[in-house]
Design goal:
This is Diphthine synthase. By secondary structure, the chain is of the alpha/beta class. The protein has 10 helices and 12 strands. It has 2 domains: 108 residues, 3-Layer(aba) Sandwich (Cobalt-precorrin-4 Transmethylase, domain 1), CATH 3.40.1010; 140 residues, Methyltransferase, Cobalt-precorrin-4 Transmethylase, Domain 2.
Length: 260
């Protein structure tokens, strides 16, 4: 059996009860934290809290060389962990399909994701989101400016009146996390006066949610990571009220329901 377990967003206690039970019953536990991580829990804290030993895998060890994980899962109960949900944004469908090809039973125990948390924290309705994008560090995509795949997706969503989640790049091995202010500065060159919302430390007891023009958000410090941005599209009147109450959005950016 290979069980994919989402750990949630914040610390060692963010896991669901079902996830905790499956984790403690596992014979072998592997995890990856190269695309996301728990804001307030170390590997040691996870191991101590759940009385387990975790084999941390890098990207190559999961995507190119998962044979030992699959071999163990043929005869043992194996748990595979990620922050958030293992099949949202950080997708491990390939690993699951490889297991199925070998006749290995699989299951998923979902965790809270940044995607759902962003909707809940901002008050933007989840069914009004379009395609999400990931904004890389400038050095990571080998070209100047923001990749056209990012800007094109934002433009396409806005034309349809849809919101865009902009995930921010993580280089876990270097302990490097793209900040919302830096991301806003990068996007402001194409969308200077566009309304955007920063969500920082979703899942923690003290998340930050702030809305303003990208050019204004670029001038602010939103504290410790993880951060993401939301670029709203057309706003429903309840979403306008939510951004006012929950994100301190400037009134002049909320005086229309048309995409900005």
């Amino acid at each position: 059996m290979l069980t994919f377990i989402g750990l949630g967003l914040y610390d060692e206690r963010s896991i669901s009860i079902a996830g905790r039970d499956a984790l403690q019953a596992a014979d072998y536990v592997a995890a990856e934290f190269y695309t996301s991580y728990l804001v307030d829990a170390t590997i040691s804290e996870l191991e101590t809290t759940h009385n387990i030993t975790i084999d941390i895998r890098d990207r190559e060890g999961v995507e190119q060389h998962p044979e030992d994980i699959l071999t163990k899962a043929q005869s043992e109960d194996v748990a595979f962990l990620t922050a958030g949900d293992t099949m949202i944004s950080t997708t491990h469908t390939d690993l699951r399909l490889r297991a199925i090809d070998r006749g290995i039973d699989t299951r998923i125990i979902h965790g809270v994701t940044a995607q759902t948390a962003a909707s809940g924290l901002t008050g933007l309705q989840n069914y009004r989101f379009g395609k999400s994008v990931t904004l890389p560090f400038p050095y990571a995509h080998g070209a100047d400016g923001v990749p056209t795949s990012v800007t094109d997706s934002i433009v396409a969503n806005r034309k349809r009146g849809l919101h865009t989640i902009v995930y921010l790049d993580i280089k876990a091995e270097r302990e490097e996390y793209l900040r919302a202010s830096d991301a806003a500065a990068m996007l402001a060159s194409d969308f200077q006066d566009v309304l955007a919302v920063v969500v920082a430390r979703a899942g923690s007891p003290d998340p930050t949610v702030r809305a303003n023009r990208l050019s204004e958000l670029a001038e602010n410090d939103f504290g410790d990571p993880l951060h993401l941005l939301v670029i709203p599209g057309e706003l429903h009147h309840l979403e306008i009220e939510a951004l006012d109450a929950l994100a301190d959005a400037p009134a002049d950016l909320l005086d229309t329901t048309e995409p900005r």
